[in-house]
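Researcher: Hi, I'm a grad student and pretty new to this. My advisor asked me to get structures for two proteins we've been looking at. I'm not sure of the right format, so I'll just paste the first sequence and hope you can take it from there.
Model: That works fine. Here's the first sequence with its structure tokens right after it:
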Amino acid sequence: MRKILVVDDDPQMAKLIEMSLSPHGFRIITAQDGEDALQKALQNPPDLIIADIMMPRMDGPTFISELWAKLNNRSIPVIFVTGLISKAEEEVQHKLFGNQYFLAKPFTPSVLKSLVGQVLK
């Protein structure tokens, strides 16, 4: 069973992501901010990280940078969920950042599931 670490300071968003993906055979681990996520990811590295960009204590990009530095590994794919980009910018962002993907809020569970499937294939 593939593990997905979901990092979001909004408990409703984290629950929506969990409810969207767990019925499809994914084991979901949640964290409320980047500091919590860093500890969890170092203890048990996930197959995929879905993280909000803007969070208190440690934002998503800082968390990913620190995780990759500590693991000396950039192979864990990341989907950043954010209200900071438009749907039109999503595809451009995918091409620019390689193993990091961007999903504009709001999104539907089917769009999330599809992107997770593409990233983990």
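Researcher: Oh nice, that was easy. Here's the second one.
Model: And its structure:
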Amino acid sequence: MKRASLVIGPESSGTRLWTRVLRACGCAGDGGHEQRWDTRPLETNLIVWRHSMPHGAEWFCVADWIQPLLTKGWRCAVYVKVRDWYANACSQVHRSHAKSLNEAQMRIQRAYESIFMGLAETSVPFAIVSYELVCRA
């Protein structure tokens, strides 16, 4: 059975960290910003595929990312990364994703709206994974 763990969250929410955890558990994929599955065919039956929102400066449709996998028979589960809003906003400013805390908070809000609207279109199971809890483990 082909299984895909899809990791998504606002920029600086911990998507790379969680992707690296899933890679350590045996999933094929990439823990950094570049994602091989963005440009290459899926080569194995157990993958992790990460997208921040936005991904590569593009605000994309989450359902359009997931639906082709479902159509090809992949069993998908989505991990939505959440992080303390203030820490997330500060990290976005520090990493130049946003120019101010206010802009960062607006981007975080927009990201979650897009993510959950897209998930509602697909009915794919999802879990919310807290950055703070992962870091405490």
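Researcher: Is there anything I should tell my advisor about the second?
Model: You could mention this: The beta strands are 3-10, 46-53, 75-82, 126-130.
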